[in-house]
Write a structure and sequence with these properties.
Helix content is 20%, strand content 31%. It is of the alpha+beta class and 346 residues long.
């Protein structure tokens, strides 16, 4: 399924996101629903993150891992009921993975793709837009929580989440026949707040350290390498896929990591990076660059690269092989802006 990447200049859209409000059509972000008598136990089995503190009405960022500890996906989990969950997935076959796991287990669950299509409303004025759409109750919605409501009779679920690292919401349409109606109502409610349709901002997500599946991470990478070790609880009560492998990886240590990089000088490339670029050290290929963009706010080329552990120390100099030739790069700390996510929590 396609996703609109941009409607205007990406830098113009970036500043509109940071200063006003934007709406993204992310209907390609499909949901996997897990429900049934063993829904909770099955969800615990799919993820190494401990879900005992995830209450009904709450969402969590999680990873799903395979038997070798590889990342199958990094979805947002939404707990709709005691034994009912949605996984809002990136670009991989989580539905088929979950059904395969279920088939070869004793869990009593139903797994399906519901008739749900999300849009994201992101930016500092997104709260004003949502108040106009669903009323003042949305003002009390905490970060990574949701509410079920209607917009002029259209059933939706509104979550306090997003892919921008700005204040934002996702509106999940629960009746596919009302998509045009919902879009028109959102645009009307957003007009006083200068709401504009855009695509997801590659600039902003790199600044924030947000990962993209499968361009930055996939099943060949494990959470510890990707900086997602905080999503792994090896000692949680429930067993999960990949536990033994991840315990071994943590004990022995990783051999590579995904790091932040800065490329001094003029702009190297406009979003998005068409494919991974080789990274070299002293003429030898040592890794890959997965993302790169000139931050409009920082006025620096920033991105991510996979490097062997000896080259991950801050300040290490490497070379990026671009189509236009080699460029010097430096290993730097990420996220590049707002590392504690104070902005989206506000």
């Amino acid at each position: 399924m396609y996703i609109p990447s941009n409607f205007a200049d990406p830098i113009e859209e970036y500043w509109h996101l940071v200063n006003h409000a934007t709406v993204w059509d992310v209907g390609c972000e499909r949901q996997v629903e897990i429900r049934g008598p063993d829904g909770y136990e099955f969800m615990e089995y799919l993820t190494p993150r401990d879900l005992t503190t995830c209450t009904v009405g709450q969402a969590k960022y999680v990873v799903l891992t395979d038997e070798q500890g590889g990342i199958i996906n990094d979805p947002v989990l939404t707990r709709l009921g005691k034994s009912r969950f949605w996984l809002s997935t990136a670009d991989s076959d989580v539905l088929l993975w979950a059904k395969g796991v279920s088939y070869h287990s004793d869990f009593d669950v139903e797994i399906r793709e519901p008739d749900v299509s999300p849009m994201q409303i992101q930016g500092p004025k997104s709260k004003d837009v949502l108040r106009a759409l669903v009323g003042p109750s949305v003002s009390n919605l905490e970060y990574y929580h949701f509410l079920e409501t209607t917009i002029d009779g259209i059933p939706v679920i509104v979550t306090r989440t997003g892919w921008s690292a700005e204040v934002g919401y996702e509106v999940y349409l629960c009746d596919g026949s009302r998509g045009t109606d919902l879009w028109n109502r959102v645009m009307a409610a957003g007009k006083p707040f200068d709401l504009r349709p855009t695509g997801p901002s590659e600039y902003r997500r790199i600044e924030a350290g947000i990962l993209n599946y499968p361009s930055d991470i996939d099943w060949n990478h494990n959470p510890y390498e990707a900086g997602l070790g905080w999503l792994v609880d090896l000692d949680k009560k429930h067993d999960f896929i990949g536990r033994a492998a991840l315990r071994k990886i943590k004990r022995e240590g990783v051999k590579r990591k995904l790091v932040g990089v800065e490329v001094p000088g003029d702009e190297v490339v406009r979003p998005w990076l068409p494919h991974p670029w080789p990274v070299r050290k002293d003429g030898k290929e040592v890794g890959t660059l997965t993302a790169l963009a000139m931050s409009p706010r920082l006025q620096k080329n920033i991105g991510y690269a996979w490097l062997p552990i000896p080259l991950t120390k801050l300040g290490t100099e490497i070379e990026i092989e671009t189509p236009a030739g080699s460029r010097k790069a430096i290993v730097v700390k990420k996220p590049f802006i707002d590392p504690k996510k104070e902005t989206p929590k506000s």
